[in-house]
Design a protein that fits this description.
Elements lengths: L1 H9 L7 E2 L10 E5 L10 E5 L8 E9 L3 H12 L3 E10 L4 H5 L3 E6 L4
Parallel strand pairs: 4-5, 5-6
Antiparallel strand pairs: 1-3, 2-3
GO cellular component, one term: cytoplasm
Main location: cytoplasm
Subcellular location: Cytoplasm
């Protein structure tokens, strides 16, 4: 919901990245990637319909919480798979710490987890 509200406020398009969506009947039209381990050491498959992001589009990922950076890293790879430009990630709570350096993610947040 946060991403959709942000897109509406900015007057831009919105693409929902689906998590563990399972095999869709139109799976050949999807771009999919698997994350590295998250905070519970799980690997998650993310994806969206290939025709929703086109070469030359500029994409900002919006999320509520960034913990390991795995979701943002896989989202960036999906965007780049489509030939679009990754401009960064925005979240409410930044819990990455030094992980930001490992993932090379431009990230803007409202608050860092240490301040909660």
């Amino acid at each position: 919901m946060l991403g959709a509200l942000t897109a509406a406020a900015l007057g831009v398009g919105f693409v929902e990245i689906r998590k563990n969506n399972g095999q869709a009947t139109d799976s050949d039209r999807w771009v999919l990637r698997t994350t590295g381990p998250d905070y519970q050491d799980r690997h998650v498959v993310f994806g969206f319909r290939r025709d929703l992001i086109k070469a030359g589009d500029r994409v900002l990922m919006v999320d509520d919480w960034a913990d390991t950076g795995a979701t943002a890293s896989v989202a960036r790879a999906l965007v780049e798979d489509c030939g679009a430009e990754w401009i960064g990630a925005a979240c409410i709570v930044d819990g990455l710490g030094n992980a930001r350096l490992r993932h090379d993610l431009p990230l803007r947040s409202l608050i860092h987890v240490r301040r909660l």
